[in-house]
Write a structure and sequence with these properties.
Blueprint lengths: L4 H9 L6 E8 L7 E11 L11 E9 L4 H11 L2
Parallel strand pairs: 1-3
Antiparallel strand pairs: 2-3
């Protein structure tokens, strides 16, 4: 896997054995109420394209809801990352 100069610089700052958590939120026009999932992956999995640098993902949080409340879903996603 080829890393850019910026990615290599960033990877040097990440401790060995570090794992990622991914938070995904969005709106879908066919949903009538929000659905949410919190997933722990065991073992952690390298999900290419999900993180800026290639580190394995341990946790996934997904929140999808009907259109019109995207800002609220965004804020919930932000709170999951703190």
């Amino acid at each position: 896997m080829d890393l850019s100069k910026a990615e290599l610089h960033f990877m040097k700052k990440i401790p060995t054995g570090a794992e990622a958590s991914n938070v995904l939120v969005g709106e879908l026009d066919f949903l009538h109420q929000p659905i949410m999932a919190f997933v722990r992956l065991s073992p952690a999995v390298l999900l290419s394209g999900m993180t800026e640098v290639p580190i394995p993902t341990r946790f996934l949080f997904v929140l999808l809801g009907p259109e019109g409340k995207g800002h609220q879903y965004h804020e919930i996603g932000r709170s999951m990352m703190r």
